[in-house]
Amino acid sequence: MMNSRPPRKSSNGRSRFSKAFSRLINNKIFLALFSLGLAFAIWGVLIASDGSLTRRKVLADAPVSVTGEASLISRGYIVTDNILELVPNVDMIVQVTQGTYDRATASVYNPHFELTQVTGEGENTLNVVFSSQVYGQVISCEPSSVKVNVERYITRRVPVLVELTGILPSGYYLKSYKSDPTSLTVSGPQSVVSGISRVVVRLNQNDLTAERMVDRLALNLELQRSDGSKVESDKLTVTNQSVITGSVIVETELIPLKAVPVEAPEFVSGTPAEGYRLAAVELAASSVDVAASQEILDTISVITTDTPLDITDATESVTGYVRLRKLTGIDSTLPAEIGVKAVIEEKELTRQFHQVSIQVRGDSAGAASLASRRTNVRVTGKYTAVKALTADDILLSVDVTGLEAGTHVLPIKASVINQPDLTVEPDTGEVQVVIAQ
Q1: SS3 state at 62
Q2: Residue 63 sits in a domain of what CATH number?
Q3: How confident is the model over 195-204, as a mean pLDDT?
Q4: Does residue 302 lie in a domain region?
Q5: Of 46, 250, 320, 364, which residue is 20 to 30 A from 391 by alpha carbon distance?
């Protein structure tokens, strides 16, 4: 017969756990550790719930600022060092209450350097100060100070100079260019400002265009010393009528330009000395650039002068500078004068000498007789040399050296004594010579 009652559960497992738990709670070491942990937990809850309790907080890499620059400048001083490069941030330890712990940030304390601490020129020590400590006191700050150099703050008015660079568009002339303003005010440390001589702006002529004959350009400025070296400092301020500026307006005006021929013969006057002539007139340039309005340029075809180079009685080339005629309405592209050379040459002269005697030379000269002992001669050469000749200066001769007795036709040799450059031409080029036995 089957048993209908459910089987009884074993009580061995529960019994073993109960015995183990009893042994644990009766252990003195466990009870001591448990009591200590419980005490710490209760103490933490109490502290967390008490906002008046204080604790320390570390604020690392807190950014630093600088105040009072305008006030310092109004006192006539300026810090020449970059304070924020020397001390970009600080590490702070603050003592704050438990209730304000999370709100006590670096921005609340606002660590900064106040330039009101500056006492005068030279080295000054500035301490880090804090805007507010309502959430707790600053116990420490590293670094807590910085040493800076201080100079007098001065202001100086310097001129603006426009330097031209690049090349103008072909066929145009830069009639005018001027800066607005013509001077600027530079302020900053005395050691820097006192060395600034000018403000320079560079006008690139490549940027000018015929589409804008009149233009206004904003050009970046550059501060320079007297030797042309550049001055750079973040402590300098450039102003125009109290407004800080970094550029200068330059006004430009272009006008048309064309090359006009120079009328060379008009640049010489007078007559050379007798026997001389004007061979050529050489100018330093065959044309000059003229700039003017298009209406005026259309009426100009040649450039001349009112004061030509005088060559009266000249016996050699004459050089000099001649003033060009100033035409109404043209711009300053036309040079004031031009170099001129008048090339003077001596004329050639031909003279006729009549019945110049013919001499016989050679070892048979005593036995020789000429069919004609005289002939006419033409001499050509430099004017002064030919002009001074006489018939006695002309040498006509035949050479009978080595000839036998009989009749000979010999060439006439012709020359001028000590004048080898002259051309001598007898009317008769040869003569009949009879040599006796």
Answers
A1: strand
A2: 2.170.120
A3: 97
A4: yes
A5: 364
Q: Is 97 exposed, middle or buried (0-12, 13-18, 19+ CB in 10 A)?
A: middle
pLDDT of 292-319, one tens digit each?
888 888 888 898 898 999 999 999 999 9
Whether residues 352 and 338 fall in one domain: no
Please spell the DSSP secondary structure of 370-385, one letter per residue. ES-SEEEEEEEEEHHH
Number of domains in the chain: 5
Say if CB 153 and CB 77 are below 8 A apart: yes
Burial of 160 (0-12, 13-18, 19+ CB in 10 A): buried
Q: pTM value? A: 0.60
Of 294, 320, 346, the last residue of a domain is: 346
pLDDT tens for residues 80-124? 999 999 999 999 999 998 888 988 999 999 999 999 999 999 999
Could you tell me the two tokens for 253? 């005006």
Report if residue 12 sits inside a domain. no
Expressed as residue numbers, the domain containing 362 is 348-435
Q: Could you give the 3-state DSSP secondary structure of residue 310?
A: strand
- Please list the residues that pair with 73 across neighbouring strands: none
- β-pair type (309-310, 268-269): parallel
